[in-house]
């Protein structure tokens, strides 16, 4: 599917700049960059070490400005040279300092202690997105980077703070970058699964939980969330622990499948028929109908998830599609009393069947048509009966 081809992780150099942080003040040799970083860090750490918990706005501005410069330097730093064949490149001196001094954890915790206002929350989200997306070194393998990142995301998941609507784009963009990094280095998935904020519980994949509410969202934010979730699915296809979490401890499958029901309810109940020979919805017929485009995006996503996910997730999702969408929604929709509504629902069912490529999902739709009974008749019997009825209904049923 075209969906999967879009998800090929890109290298750092191919990523377009979003201007989320100022340009690095230093493009000199590593020693000079380290000296500049250390100077910024001394000024930040002085503020962080003050015992007065009521820090001033000047302190906040200073910390944010110096942190911006520090993380730009970290993002631009390249790993050291390999000393032998097959050796892992050593971390750069700036990253080594970040790890040894626990820089990011101390900065994030300082923000959390003083109260994370939306401006600071948004700035931190954008800084981490820049850092992960543009870094020349693999950062998420280091607990000193991963732990504060998850601490920030944990704060975004808390009911008291949450993520304001104005910051949702920044949050999803950061989550998407994390999933892209995870796809490049699958070992990160296990780290994400095991390294979680204490308040989130031992089995919570926080990245995943934050993405699920955006599954059916319209626009770029929904597409980024679905792309990120699909990367999680593909990366975890052979990970039994993560698959069990998704199937047993998350709302992913019910939200995805039953969300189709909500989206279907917003579809037009009458289709403009161009003539008695009209019998099916073509792409040019529905691309201008926003509600149908949104539904088809979610159905295509279901198809893609089933294509790449672990068998445990695949089986559960297929069951939810059957029991949470087809039976309670499509069944009654195909038996409306209005001819126009019957034509629309039958045309939608035909479109869905033609759009599905995965065998497991196609079998579920066919099982619904062949075996599900509505008022003692199977869906197939109903469709066959209509072939001899009203001409337009006959054509679309055929």
Automatic annotation (TrEMBL):
GO cellular component: FHF complex
Entry-linked InterPro entries: FHIP
Record field: compositional bias (Polar residues): 14-25
Stretches the record annotates as Disordered: 1-25
GO BP field: early endosome to late endosome transport; endosome organization; endosome to lysosome transport; lysosome organization
Pfam name, any one: RAI16-like
Name used for this protein in its record: Uncharacterized protein
């Amino acid at each position: 599917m075209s969906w999967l081809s879009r998800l090929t992780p890109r290298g750092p150099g191919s990523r377009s700049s979003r201007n989320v942080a100022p340009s690095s003040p230093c493009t000199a040799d590593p020693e000079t960059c380290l000296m500049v970083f250390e100077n910024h860090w001394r000024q930040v750490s002085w503020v962080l070490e003050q015992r007065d918990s009521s820090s001033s706005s000047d302190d906040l501005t200073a910390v944010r400005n110096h942190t911006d410069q520090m993380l730009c330097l970290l993002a631009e730093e390249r790993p050291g040279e390999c000393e032998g064949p097959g050796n892992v490149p050593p971390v750069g001196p700036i990253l080594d300092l970040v790890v040894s001094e626990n820089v990011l954890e101390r900065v994030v915790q300082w923000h959390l202690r003083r109260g994370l206002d939306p401006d600071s929350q948004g700035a931190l989200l954008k800084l981490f997105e820049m850092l992960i997306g543009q870094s020349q070194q693999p950062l998420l393998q280091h607990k000193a980077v991963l732990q504060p990142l998850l601490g920030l995301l944990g704060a975004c998941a808390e009911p008291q703070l949450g993520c304001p609507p104005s910051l949702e784009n920044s949050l999803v963009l950061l989550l998407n970058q994390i999933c892209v990094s995870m796809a490049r280095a699958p070992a990160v998935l296990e780290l994400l699964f095991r390294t979680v904020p204490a308040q989130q519980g031992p089995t919570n994949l926080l990245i995943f939980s934050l993405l699920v509410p955006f599954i059916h969202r319209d626009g770029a934010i929904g597409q980024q969330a679905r792309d990120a979730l699909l990367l999680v699915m593909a990366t975890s296809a052979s990970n039994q622990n993560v698959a069990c979490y998704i199937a047993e401890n998350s709302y992913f499958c019910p939200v995805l499948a039953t969300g189709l029901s909500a989206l279907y309810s917003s579809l037009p109940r009458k289709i403009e028929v161009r003539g008695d020979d009209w019998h099916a919805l073509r792409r040019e017929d529905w691309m201008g109908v926003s509600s149908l485009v949104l539904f088809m995006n979610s159905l295509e996503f279901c198809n893609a998830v089933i294509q790449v996910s672990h068998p445990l997730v695949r089986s559960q999702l297929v069951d939810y599609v059957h029991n949470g969408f087809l039976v309670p929604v499509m069944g009654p929709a195909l038996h409306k009393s209005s001819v126009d509504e019957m034509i629309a629902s039958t045309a939608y069912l035909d479109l869905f069947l033609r759009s599905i490529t995965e065998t497991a999902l196609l079998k579920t739709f066919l099982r619904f048509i062949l075996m599900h009974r509505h008022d003692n008749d199977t869906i197939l019997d109903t469709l066959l009966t209509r072939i001899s009825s009203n001409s337009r209904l006959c054509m679309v049923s055929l």
